[in-house]
Input
Amino acid sequence: MNEILKERIEEEAFEFSCDRGVLGSTYNAYYDGVVHGGLFALAHQWINFKNNPPKSEDQIIVRLKNILTNETKTWMCYMHTICRFFEENPETEWKITHWMSIPELEEE
Output
């Protein structure tokens, strides 16, 4: 787990609970719920490609697996580019297993 992201989640949990004036054991429940939800979301960002392929033409990150060697690679690409590659190379040993959206950058 990325420690910087974990720290941000914990800070947000603190702010979320304090902003609502939560005290005592209710504070612990709010705090724990926000932390747990944030950590769960971070741990489950990859989406199964076969069960739920991306529907947009946005740039995405894909996880590829070589069916002969079990080697994996991660690519950043446009969905239409990766689909065209696999249409033009149907015999490739590389298969897309998972994908995820590219997170938005925070404006400072």
User: Anything to note?
Assistant: Residues 47-101 form one domain. The chain has two domains: 3-43, 47-101. The radius of gyration is 19 Å.
